[in-house]
Inverse folding.
């Protein structure tokens, strides 16, 4: 039996300059490094909360 986990594509679309330190930490926690960098993260409630916190900095697909 395969264990297919759902993933979400998250792309950093705005600079982190001038944002709160906790928001910068959240972006780094998702694995995003620079503008237009995209990562695939597992779709969990914790990750959804992180994305919701920094929704003005990222684009989410999937």
């Amino acid at each position: 039996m395969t264990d297919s986990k759902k993933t979400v594509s998250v792309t950093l679309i705005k600079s982190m300059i001038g944002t709160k330190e906790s928001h910068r930490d959240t972006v780094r926690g998702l694995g995003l490094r620079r503008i237009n960098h995209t990562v695939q993260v597992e779709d969990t409630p914790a990750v959804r909360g992180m994305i919701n916190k920094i929704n003005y900095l990222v684009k989410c697909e999937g």
Summary: DSSP finds two helices and three strands in the chain.
